[in-house]
Amino acid sequence: MLDLNEIAMFVQVVQAGSFAEAARRLSMPPNTLSRQVLQLENHLGVRLLQRSTRKLNLTDAGRALYERSAAQVEELLQAAQQLTEAQQEPSGLVRVAVPADFFDFFLLDWVAEFLREHPAVQLDFVLSDGRADLISEGIDVAFRGGELPDSSLVARRLSTNHTGLVASPAYLALRGTPAQLEDLSHHACIRASKTVGRGLWRLEGPQGPEQVEVTGSFSANTAQAQLKAAVAGLGIALLPMTIVTQNLRAGTLCEVLPQYGQPNGGLYVVYPSRKQVPRAVTAFVDAAVQRLDLR
Hints:
Low-confidence stretches: none
Mean pLDDT: 85
Strand content: 25-35%
Order of helices and strands: HHHEEHEHHEEEHEEEEHEHEEH
Radius of gyration: 25 Å
Distance between the termini: 56 Å
Number of strands: 13
Structural class: alpha/beta
Shape: elongated
Helix content: 25-40%
């Protein structure tokens, strides 16, 4: 008799893209999962998957079985999940991909609060400036900035971000506050590295796109260093407003010419699917949206 559990396992492998990732999601050994799919192939008398060291490819028979059974398996799993969800506390490991300087701009307080509320959850932060492939790298949640390309990922916006001009109160008291864009050419401006002599800032303003030549004695290749320089009073910086929000609230920085800026997408928290999302992942995403909402 055909084992419906084997079909469910097959669907999970196809959706995960590999036996290893499916096994991680199901908390079972990969060889057990592989054996289940092999038994299904033996019961049906057809090969469903072409296996290689790098990836899995569906055969025609495998594609047909998946297309006919995936929706039903999803519905059954969702029904079972809904019945047990209310009784379960979030638990397990959540792997989170963030930019390398993420915790330079976002304090760990909200993470500590989340872990206090959900003691059965473990968080593994993967810090890198590369854009992680969530499926192949086993990432549950990622924080991404800028414009998001079209993809199958689910995205929740944390901020509608733009880049703006900021300076410290001490600098503005010493050098004056620019009244119009052209005034920036007479100020010390903090720029990105590799800018020799005068640099060009292109900004969107009330009259549309405008540009101004700027110069300054300090430049750096990271936003964090430019932010610290602005707080120290070394000049006017052009930075994503997301990362200067706390400084603006604390009064260590002030906005300069707030009518000018650069659209810069936003900050998002993304995850692979709306279906069968572990409660620990859902809880973490909800906490991030609630505590890091900078709109």
